[in-house]
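Usage

Read records sequentially. Each one opens with the input sequence:
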Amino acid sequence: MAVTATPLQVLWFILIGVLLVGYFVLDGFDLGVGILYPFLGKAEKEKAMMRVSVGPVWDGNEVWLLTAGGALFAAFAPAYATSFSGFYLAIMLVLFGLIVRAISLEFRHHDHAWAKLHDVLFFVGSLVPALLFGVAVGNVVRGLPLDAAGNYTGGFFALLNPFSLLIGVLGLVQFILQGLTWLGVKAPAESEVYHRAKKLQPIFAVIVAVVAVVACLAAILWVKPVMAGGFALVLRWLSLVLILVGSAGSLVLSKQGRDLGAFIASSINCVALVIVFAASIYPNLIPASSGPSITIASAGGSNNALLAMTLIACVGVPLVLFYHYLAYRAFRGRVTSEDLNY
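and closes with the structure output:
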């Protein structure tokens, strides 16, 4: 007999999705700028400009990922155990990338002897997580081979299948678009970085839309058996429409010189991608290609624990949002020459 998820379990499934949206939108432009760093930053001043565009906010943006991981552990411990053990090597590569990216950002301005190494680390530390996040999502949507106890029975290279790599590419090009639109907001309008970013924005807006359509068709052909129908099916199609609208909006607004609007339109893509991910696995947390799936109901914590978490979230989330408001307000506006000494 199937167990029905409680309202609090469903609520925390949604809240974890909201945390992922926050991470995808905010740290998405950090990773995108890092990937673009060796291609858009030619001179030393241009590289410094790109680093300063994310320097004051990147560490706060990563809070969303840490909170999402903590929420998954507290609300759905079995799903946390399966995902983190199954993706162990991939997660270590992501953490390694995030660590070396942080080191490169903090030391690059002061450690001139190792400047070239820090530049490489900033690029690699942004590229690896941006790609592997999408690969992980693709594997979850596709379904993982699990045994009766919910343990992952595949290996690392089994995660590098065509569908998951396609979703990894989709995430990667969206991160790049997010970074391009952020540079449109932050780079000085007279700078070469700004003009290079503006030239690439329409190209990547189209690429994101095309890859999203291809990924949707691939999902229908390859992973349809593990995807729920009904309202979830409607959400998936609405999300695809949102991605096309966001990409088109980013393209049009960029050409009109409305840089903040282009960034917001690109961020709509991030929201839509998380929605389509959630709709593709609901009511599961870890769909299984073989063995029993881990569902919201089977993995969810007790109502008392989830109620306590909800009360804590009611206090903590507004504080985090207020922190972000202060940080982005303090560092609002385009990067200036004075900022390059940060």
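Summary fields computed downstream for this record:
- The two ends are 60 Å apart (CA to CA).
- The chain has a mean pLDDT of 89.
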